[in-house]
Design goal:
The chain is an alpha/beta fold. The chain is built from 24 helices and 25 strands.
Length: 767
């Protein structure tokens, strides 16, 4: 009795149709190249469906791409053509005149045009060629009447050969076949064309590993056990970002263990543990997974080391309590954005890399995995996501990521994701010096402005670095001051700042884009009114967007805040800030004057380059002695710093600071500092920050520029200044700077160099 064929389904992902064949329990393996029965089955199913890809599902999946599937579909199409035409019927074999030859010819044509065509089309082609040669030679010895009917048979064979030669499968191997008098035994030649991509069966998304020719390797690094490789394509603007997770290169035994473990633990949910608590219970689940893996290996007599058990447990965790392929991308701290556009699966995931800009990945995110992720988002946020609520805005704290998920009817092509990653640690001014976003002198000026309690708006377009600049300026606030932050999406690294000594109270407001907001969420303007009642504090507004601007400026105008106020706003320059705040948001001119400084950042494409570099392009003081339009009236907007992209230079306008600035005149009166002392203070702040950058570069210790060290260094610098004031009644800036530099060397540089050397001894070569 013939074996019953494997069940199949056709699944559409994006615009791609997958023919999925369940090979579990089959007597032959899940490989088209190795098993003729499987090839025949696939060709048969392709003749009945309109699939773009073939998936053979077993312990792991073998995925055949569009090119491979197209080759097999061509075979299925000519098999159908031969069947409809009936090429083995007597009329095509020579008819009654060749009656005695018909049985043998029938067997040959059926074997070539049906049996072998499905199981081994290359041998079918070779056998057809051999039959043509044999019949031509035999015809020469036949009587004239039989020669004529034999020619009919030869014509049929040549028709079969021509159809086979037109297929891509034969074309690709034609030159190889012609060199052989006889095909070697086995099916090894199919491996050159039909080698499938292996994929664990429980992973919904797929990866593309095939690389185009002339690709250039640019960079390679590791992200939690996954290799990330950056390539440059000679004909593409964007770089290629390829990941190769460990789950794609396991042994069959480990695939078996992995699949069985996933199957067992997927239903495991300890009593009393809420779904939203899973992320905080990873250690518990890892222990469960490791125990399960060890048990499965022991029960099936599979040898496995403790290191391998832990590695498999991490993979299981990724696809159970983690976010699958999305979580893997979000673990790369060098990425700033991840985009998964609708329809999912049609195009690869798109990312923005901090070093290489926009990149096309080798990841195709699936609807199946998206459903799982959305379920997690709904549970963790407590927000709905359906046709009535087609936007889900959510902060994924574990990955320092803001997620925006949209679906129908807003997104008619299906679900899409936009994920904005935030640096795990806040940017610092020394780091900005290191990457040339600011010069040391500009960094010193910014530090002074924060210390002088300037009310500032950080201005720029999306991706200009507004939030990053805001973070760096927050680190210039004295840790002795209390800070209140107001955000609708939690971008600011509040938890990290607490660890380095800051006292911060965070307020979370209703998202500006969420549809169907939770009733308990507070509006930005109400949150701001509350913040003003929480006592004397520095006030940080994540982004000034709408009605809260009226409350903010009124508080600033009447002095209700009484301290530093900072926030970000989307605009192009200082004048456009005034235009938006006054004309769009309805803030009166008299209130807008409470803004001291507009600090403008922008992405720069030097000389039309495809690469963007972030630069601080403007620091503008908002004057107080104008009435209608600050751009048209004298000293309405005063240039403190400007930028020239042709020379990539930032220029501080000392004359404006010394002569026109109203803010610096106010500082002179309030602090009893003449303008020369103010400038000396700015310069030595610049020297101190440049020194940290110099030490980082000289000793290759990038951690020195992180907030963990720069905050302590800044505090120490200010304390030394205070000691100088107490001793001599003024600050001896050169002396304080030299003593501080020595303190940095003794306290930080020696420690970090020692740690670097210790790591170098234990790190394997090449890492």
């Amino acid at each position: 009795m013939a074996e019953e064929k494997s069940p199949y389904t056709v699944k559409t992902e994006g615009a791609t149709k997958y023919l999925i064949i369940d090979c579990r329990g089959s007597s032959y393996g899940a490989s088209i190249a190795d098993y003729p029965q499987r090839m025949a089955e696939v060709i048969d199913y392709l003749g009945k469906t309109d699939a773009d890809r073939v998936v053979l599902a077993e312990v792991y999946e073998r995925v055949y791409d569009e090119d491979q599937t197209h080759m097999l579909k061509q075979i299925a199409e000519i098999a159908q053509k031969f069947r409809v035409k009936g090429v083995w019927s007597p009329q095509y074999l020579g008819g009654d005149a060749c009656g005695k030859y018909l049985p043998a010819r029938h067997d040959i044509v059926v074997n070539v045009a049906s049996d072998l065509l499905h199981t081994d089309p290359i041998r079918a082609y070779m056998k057809c060629i051999e039959a043509i040669a044999r019949e031509k030679q035999a015809a020469q010895q036949m009587p004239a009447a039989q020669q004529e009917c034999t020619q009919t048979y030869i014509t049929t064979l040549e028709y079969i050969r021509a159809n086979l030669e037109a297929t891509e499968l034969i074309q690709r191997l034609k030159s190889y076949i012609r060199k052989l008098k006889k095909l070697p035994p086995g099916r090894g030649f199919y491996h050159t064309l039909l080698e499938a991509q292996l994929k664990p069966s429980f992973i919904g998304s797929r990866l593309l590993f095939k690389l185009p020719e002339q690709i250039e390797l640019i960079d390679q690094y590791d992200v939690k056990g996954t290799t990330v490789t950056i390539y440059k394509h000679p004909e593409k603007i964007e770089y290629l970002y390829h990941i190769n997770p460990p789950e794609y290169s396991l042994s069959p035994e480990h695939y078996f263990i992995l699949s069985k473990t996933k199957e067992i633990v997927s239903e495991y949910h300890p009593e009393g543990l809420e779904f939203t608590e899973l992320a905080t219970s990873k250690e518990y689940f890892m222990r469960v997974y490791e125990t399960t893996i060890a048990d499965i290996a022991r029960q099936n007599n599979i040898e496995i080391t403790q290191k391998e058990i832990k590695g498999l447990a991490r993979i299981v965790a990724r696809y159970t309590i983690g976010f699958g392929m999305m979580g893997l991308l979000l673990s790369d701290e060098r990425l700033t954005d991840v985009y998964m556009d609708a329809p999912l699966g049609l195009k690869p995931v798109y990312v923005v890399h901090g070093d290489y800009g926009p990149c096309q990945t080798n990841v195709f995110f699936s609807e199946e995995e998206a459903d799982s992720v959305i379920s997690r988002f709904r549970s963790m946020s407590g927000r709905p996501f359906d046709e009535a609520h087609s936007v889900l805005d959510f902060d994924l704290h574990e990955y320092h990521t803001r997620t925006a998920t949209i679906g129908p009817p807003l997104s008619p092509d299906g679900v899409a994701f936009a994920l904005r990653l935030h640096k795990g640690t806040p940017w610092t001014l020394p780091q900005f010096i290191d990457v040339k976003m600011v010069t040391p002198e500009v960094a010193g000026l910014l530090s002074f402005l924060i210390d002088a309690q300037a009310s500032s708006l950080i201005v720029g377009s999306r991706g200009a670095g507004k939030s990053s600049m805001l973070m760096s300026l927050m680190l210039e606030i004295l840790p002795s001051l209390r800070i209140i932050t107001i955000e609708d999406t939690l971008e600011l690294p509040v938890e990290y700042m607490r660890k380095v000594g800051y006292n911060i109270c965070r307020l979370k407001t209703r998202s500006s884009i969420s549809v169907g907001a939770i009733s308990s969420e507070v509006s930005p303007e109400d949150a701001l009114r509350t913040a003003l009642r929480l006592g004397d504090s520095v006030l940080i507004v994540g982004e000034v967007r709408s009605k809260e601007a009226l409350v903010l400026y009124e508080a600033m105008r009447v002095g209700a805040v009484g301290n530093v106020v900072m926030g970000t706003i989307h605009a192009e320059n200082a004048y456009s800030v005034w235009d938006r705040v006054v004309n769009d948001l309805g803030v009166p001119n008299t209130s807008f004057k409470a803004t001291d400084m507009a600090i403008v950042a922008a992405p720069i494409r030097f000389k039309g380059s495809l690469h963007k570099d972030r630069r601080l392009v403007e620091i503008t003081e908002v004057g107080k002695l104008w009435y209608e339009d600050p751009g048209r009236e004298k000293d309405g907007l005063i240039d403190i710093m400007t930028y020239d992209a042709t020379t990539d230079t930032q220029t501080i306008h000392k004359d404006n600071i010394f002569e026109r600035s109203q803010f610096f005149k106010k500082i002179q009166k309030r602090r009893g500092m003449d303008i020369d002392t103010i400038w000396e203070d700015i310069q030595h702040r610049a020297y101190s920050k440049q020194f940290l950058v110099d030490m980082k570069r000289q000793y290759n210790i990038p951690d020195l520029l992180e907030a963990k060290y720069t905050v302590r260094a800044n505090d120490k610098y200010l304390l030394m200044q205070e000691e100088s004031r107490q001793e001599i009644g003024a600050v001896d800036y050169p002396k304080v700077l030299e003593e501080w530099k020595q303190w940095v060397r003794d306290s930080f540089v020696k420690e970090l160099v020692s740690r670097r050397n210790a790591l170098a001894k234990i790190r394997p070569k090449g890492q």
